[in-house]
Amino acid sequence: MASKTPPEEEPPIEISPEADAAMAELVKIFSDPNLPTKPRFRCGIEGPDEFDVMFESIMEEQFGDSEYKQWVRRLYRLGLISTIPSEWATSEEADG
Measured between alpha carbons, how far is 26 from 61 in angstroms, rounded to an integer? Predict the structure, then answer.
């Protein structure tokens, strides 16, 4: 009589403190009752598109570096998006 052994459980995924903090910020952003009911990310996992770059360049001329660009840089450093525009990269990211 062979005993059935339960399948091996996968070990829990290790999440870096930076990724955990980024996720907490996303939860905070999308929990804001002032946001539309169907929020959407402006940048996909491949990074900002040409419209994001154009929009941000206009905004930067008027108001300086945006929180959005800082957020995109942070997601890039965490490896959550694959590319950022070269003009958005800081010196550490450009040296990469």
Answer: 26
